[in-house]
């Protein structure tokens, strides 16, 4: 926490002075079955390993010390330094133990016949971990299975450790040592001791672990994978059963430690006439001053008090208390900061043009950097050479990919498994920090940008795109609107799929895990040569090679995907009508065919990936596609009648399809509008009740992926409702959404859009995450609720994808929300 200068207010000097003093206070089990004391939380499998991504570094036993989650994945593991898809235990149950302040978790590895329980018991000023096996280890697991606890590298970089009395240094960069047996496994940094102390010099991160039976080992798992943590481990001895591992864990807890307040606000600032409310997040154990002050910064660096007023309590949410500081009455342009509890935040602006440049970098840099099948350059920097020119090979039948893609018994393709599919090496966007093309997400980008052009203009030209030369240059205007060029780039891939298969596909992705885990230049992920089975692995001939690095195409014909693509192509045909009438006509013809095929019988759910259960993925996709067809046709009766027939779906799923339903209003009759009025009122009433549960005024996800996409979609959708029904819906929802993603959220006050605002997320999960870098304009998922009640957004560790992974459709949704917020502020000048 003390490293968060400009992010959260610093802890007071008195806390630092008393850092060595520890109060004799024991952990106690809470109703949520965590173990708690002031300054320390022990979570005991409140968060489980993922059934798809396995090890997400948010499972098993976890430690929150002085407000930071410093340890995770406390569990029996079958590897010294497990990687993401190595085996993980299945959670069975969590119960109260027979001893006071004890929690017991049962878990199993069914495939290897290993069942066990972990007993976590308060003990002195720390806790004890005891592992009991249902029966002794199978012979195949002897020397492999052990109890692991992973510690966050950035909490320990540059700090020391003691294995018994032997000193060591936590390395900033993984440098070995590695085993010389060809396994690729790391050697321990330290081994053989019965006690280890992490960072003895730092009272805020010091943890001592003592083992009763068996030696301790310390590993740097980053030697196997950049997203690895420091691992403390004890092997389970052959024949052991009861108390197979017993650890005594003593996290140092600073006496009377109190988490510093977080004053959160919009890091891009505020326009003069809009509402301006900062939120203050405080530790219930500490003081919460009743007043805050707005100060104005003069040219000479002095601060002028502009407004001092009492804060308004907003109640408890999760584990913190909240209060609001309203400075809406201040309208004078200038540079301001907020003073609270003796500390002053980083500065922000009040200015008429505060939001004029909050979305452009998302379009001209982030979305450009995610473009597939082209080379991307930004002045001296090369983001990527032309990529994936060997796309694609047919994925096999009856296959579940490790990233969630699924292929059933039917390929829905004229190609045989493993066969090269010509024509797919054009256009599209790499979905996220990995390098796949997810068709539904690509369709969402195309539709979002088409909506952005129609609703808000999106007039911006900072990027050159030469599709024929496969060359993109950022910060080099070429006289063509960037949004139109990106729409065209997305359509190239969507139409390519349609031309090859006659339908949309699930997507295109790397075939093996080692290739999937590639970090850096997308152009070097494959050799860009089409696979030829007649060649040896290292042979090359002409445009072919024997390397099986070509991405796989998952080709299942699913109605939800066809409808998403039909809607995107219909919207694109409107956007491209003037600049590329040929492509516009082609997109419209494909949209009509794809849409028509899905109007007979019920619409099958699923998009062929792990998110196939989304409530909008089936019938809701039909509403969205039908509205796009209606708009493009300028009210054709076929689409109007179909939309009327879909009104039960609109009513049932208005939360998901309401924005599309509202966009249809100019092309429908008064009866249609009248039918939407009660739906808008009902949605607003439900929404207001839900939003009252948190102090931020936006829907906050409590799932295993943080919810910034949900927030920006909420912001743009509510503005469409406001424009259509201003007597029912105001602009405050949209402004709350932009405030949230630009800094007014839990945990810290960073803007979630990299480089947008004074202080923003500058370590993200993108293609360059191994460099602890960022991609300008990308929107990260944001604040995760680590169950049961811990809001988290790591500022310095990029490898938690559920908090840090940029995705292209989330960022295009942000472009819409940002423009909606700009429009909303124009109503409040």
What are the key terms here?
single chain, 829 residues, alpha+beta, nine-stranded antiparallel beta sheet, 17 helices, 42 strands, 25% helix, disordered N terminus
Outline the fold blueprint:
Layout: H1 13-17, E1 28-29, E2 35-37, E3 40-44, E4 61-65, E5 68-77, E6 90-96, E7 102-109, E8 114-123, E9 126-133, E10 146-151, H2 153-156, E11 160-163, E12 166-169, E13 190-193, E14 195-198, E15 207-211, E16 216-220, E17 230-235, E18 245-251, E19 262-264, E20 277-282, E21 291-297, E22 303-310, E23 312-317, E24 320-326, E25 334-340, E26 343-344, E27 348-350, H3 360-369, E28 375-378, E29 381-384, E30 393-394, E31 399-400, E32 406-407, E33 437-438, H4 439-456, E34 463-466, E35 471-474, H5 482-501, E36 507-509, H6 513-516, E37 530-531, E38 540-541, E39 544-545, E40 552-554, H7 559-575, H8 581-597, H9 616-632, H10 637-645, H11 647-652, H12 654-663, H13 670-691, H14 708-724, H15 732-741, E41 784-786, E42 790-792, H16 801-804, H17 808-826
Parallel strand pairs: 28-35, 30-40, 37-39
Antiparallel strand pairs: 1-2, 2-3, 3-4, 4-5, 5-10, 6-7, 7-8, 8-9, 9-18, 10-17, 11-12, 11-14, 13-16, 14-15, 15-18, 16-17, 19-20, 20-24, 21-22, 21-25, 23-24, 25-26, 25-27, 28-29, 31-32, 33-36, 34-35, 36-40, 38-39, 41-42
Helix pairs in contact: 3-17, 4-5, 4-7, 4-17, 5-7, 5-8, 7-8, 7-9, 8-9, 9-10, 9-12, 12-13, 12-14, 14-15, 14-17, 15-17
Overall description:
The chain has 829 residues and is α+β, with helices and mostly antiparallel strands. The strands form nine sheets. It has a nine-stranded antiparallel β-sheet. The protein has a nine-stranded antiparallel β-sheet with strand order 6-7-8-9-18-15-14-11-12, with no helix packed on it. β11 (160-163) and β12 (166-169) form a beta hairpin. The chain is globular, with a radius of gyration of 28 Å. The model is unreliable at 1-24 (pLDDT under 50).
């Amino acid at each position: 926490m003390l490293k968060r200068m400009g992010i959260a207010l610093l802890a007071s000097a008195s806390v630092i002075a008393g850092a060595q003093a520890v109060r004799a206070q024991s952990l106690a089990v809470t109703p949520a079955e965590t173990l708690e004391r002031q300054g320390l939380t022990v979570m005991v499998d409140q968060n489980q390993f993922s059934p798809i991504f396995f090890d997400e570094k948010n499972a098993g036993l976890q430690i929150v010390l002085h407000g930071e989650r410093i340890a995770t994945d406390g569990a029996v593991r079958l590897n010294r330094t497990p990687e993401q898809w190595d085996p993980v235990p299945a959670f069975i149950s969590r119960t109260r133990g027979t001893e006071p302040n004890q929690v017991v978790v049962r878990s199993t590895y069914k495939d290897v016949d290993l069942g066990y329980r972990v007993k976590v018991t308060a003990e002195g000023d720390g806790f004890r971990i005891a592992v009991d096996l249902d029966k002794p280890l199978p012979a195949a697991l002897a020397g492999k299975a052990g109890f692991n606890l992973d510690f966050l590298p950035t909490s320990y970089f540059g700090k020391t450790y003691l294995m018994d009395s032997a000193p060591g240094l936590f390395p900033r960069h993984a440098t070995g040592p590695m085993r010389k047996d060809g396994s690729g496994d790391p050697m321990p940094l330290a081994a053989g001791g019965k006690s280890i102390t992490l960072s003895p010099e730092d009272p805020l991160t010091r943890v001592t672990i003592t083992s009763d039976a068996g030696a301790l080992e310390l590993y740097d798992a980053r030697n196997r994978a950049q997203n690895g943590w420091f691992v403390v481990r004890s092997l389970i001895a052959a024949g052991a059963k009861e108390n197979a591992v017993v650890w005594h864990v003593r996290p140092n807890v600073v006496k009377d430690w109190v988490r510093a307040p977080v004053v959160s606000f919009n890091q891009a600032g505020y326009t003069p006439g809009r509402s301006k409310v900062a939120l203050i997040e405080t530790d219930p154990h500490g003081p919460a001053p009743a007043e805050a002050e707005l100060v104005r910064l003069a040219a000479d660096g002095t601060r002028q008090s502009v407004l001092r007023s009492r804060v308004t309590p907003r109640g408890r949410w999760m584990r913190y208390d909240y209060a609001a500081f309203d400075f809406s009455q201040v309208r004078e342009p200038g540079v301001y900061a907020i003073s609270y509890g003796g500390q002053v935040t980083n500065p922000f602006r009040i200015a008429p043009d505060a939001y004029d440049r909050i979305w452009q970098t998302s379009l001209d840099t982030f979305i450009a950097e995610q473009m597939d099948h082209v080379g991307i350059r930004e002045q001296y920097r090369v983001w990527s050479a032309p990529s994936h020119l060997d796309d694609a090979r047919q994925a096999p039948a009856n296959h579940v990919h490790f990233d969630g893609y699924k292929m059933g018994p039917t390929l829905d393709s004229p190609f045989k498994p493993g066969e090269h599919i010509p024509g797919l090496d054009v256009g599209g966007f790499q979905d996220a920090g990995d390098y796949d093309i997810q068709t539904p997400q690509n369709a969402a980008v195309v539709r979002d940008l088409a909506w952005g052009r129609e609703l808000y203009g999106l007039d911006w030209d900072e990027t050159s795109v030469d599709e024929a030369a496969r060359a993109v240059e950022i910060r080099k205007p070429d006289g063509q609107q960037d949004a139109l060029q990106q729409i065209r780039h997305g359509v190239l891939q969507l139409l390519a799929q349609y031309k090859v298969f006659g339908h949309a596909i699930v997507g295109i992705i790397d075939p093996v895990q080692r290739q999937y885990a590639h970090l850096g230049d997308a152009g070097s992920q494959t050799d860009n040569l089409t696979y030829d089975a007649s060649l040896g692995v290292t042979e090359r001939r002409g445009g072919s090679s024997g390397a099986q690095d070509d991405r796989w195409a998952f080709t299942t014909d699913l109605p939800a995907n066809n409808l998403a693509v039909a809607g995107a192509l219909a919207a694109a045909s409107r956007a491209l009508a003037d600049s590329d009438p040929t492509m516009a006509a082609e997109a419209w013809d494909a949209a009509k065919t794809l849409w028509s095929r899905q109007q007979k019988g019920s619409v099958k759910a699923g998009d062929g990936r792990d998110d196939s259960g989304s409530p909008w993925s089936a019938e809701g996709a039909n509403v969205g596609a039908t509205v796009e067809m209606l708009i493009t046709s300028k009210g054709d009766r076929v689409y109007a009648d179909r939309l009327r027939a879909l009104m039960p779906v609109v009513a049932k799923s208005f939360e998901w399809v309401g924005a599309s339903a509202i966009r249809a209003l100019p092309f429908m009759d008064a009866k249609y509008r009248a039918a939407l009025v009660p739906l808008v009122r009902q949605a607003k009433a439900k929404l207001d009740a839900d939003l009252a549960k948190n102090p931020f005024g936006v829907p906050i996800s409590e799932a295993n992926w943080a919810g910034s996409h949900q927030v920006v979609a909420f912001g743009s959708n509510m503005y469409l409702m406001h424009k259509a029904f201003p007597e029912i819906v105001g602009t405050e929802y949209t402004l709350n959404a932009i405030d949230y993603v630009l800094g007014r959220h839990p945990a810290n006050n960073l803007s979630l859009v990299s480089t947008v605002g004074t202080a923003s997320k500058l370590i993200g999960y993108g293609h360059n995450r191994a460099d602890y870098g960022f991609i300008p304009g990308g929107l990260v998922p944001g604040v995760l609720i680590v169950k049961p009640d811990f809001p988290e957004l790591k500022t310095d560790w990029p490898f938690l994808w559920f908090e840090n992974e940029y995705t292209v459709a989330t960022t295009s949704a942000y472009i819409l929300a940002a423009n909606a917020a700009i429009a909303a502020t124009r109503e409040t000048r």
